[in-house]
Recover the amino acids of this structure.
């Protein structure tokens, strides 16, 4: 049983998926306005990018226990731990959790995919943006 609210987890997955689609800034000092560059800047990964800010805020709003679970879930989905090692993943995540956990998670490529895979391994089904116990 997860302490992470599934709707919050669904939001984090959706924002992580959007954030994964972003690219490195091409011309940070262009001075152009959005209509001049066909709104391409919205897909650039910058510190003040709204998608990044929403993802960071969502993770930062979690309790420490929930952040530990999110970290362990990402590791499970990435293949660092097997389903049978869930408690070990939680213990390791608790040891590793610090003030940089959010940056680590946000900086992990394919975060959304890893979280989804971890959920599947724990018996949760993902249908669209809805996550429910399987």
């Amino acid at each position: 049983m997860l302490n992470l609210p599934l709707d919050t987890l669904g939001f984090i997955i959706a924002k992580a998926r959007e954030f994964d689609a972003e690219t490195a800034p091409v011309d940070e000092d262009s001075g152009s306005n959005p209509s001049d560059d066909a709104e391409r800047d919205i897909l650039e990964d910058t510190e003040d990018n709204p998608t990044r800010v929403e993802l960071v805020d969502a993770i930062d709003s979690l309790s420490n226990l929930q952040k530990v679970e999110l970290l362990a879930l990402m590791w499970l989905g990435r293949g660092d731990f097997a389903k049978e090692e869930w408690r070990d993943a939680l213990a390791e995540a608790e040891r590793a959790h610090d003030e940089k956990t959010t940056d680590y998670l946000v900086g992990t490529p394919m975060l959304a995919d890893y979280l989804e895979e971890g959920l599947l391994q724990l018996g949760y089904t993902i249908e669209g943006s809805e996550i429910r116990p399987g």
Remarks:
- The chain is about 50% helix and 5% strand.
- Residues 6-133 form one domain.
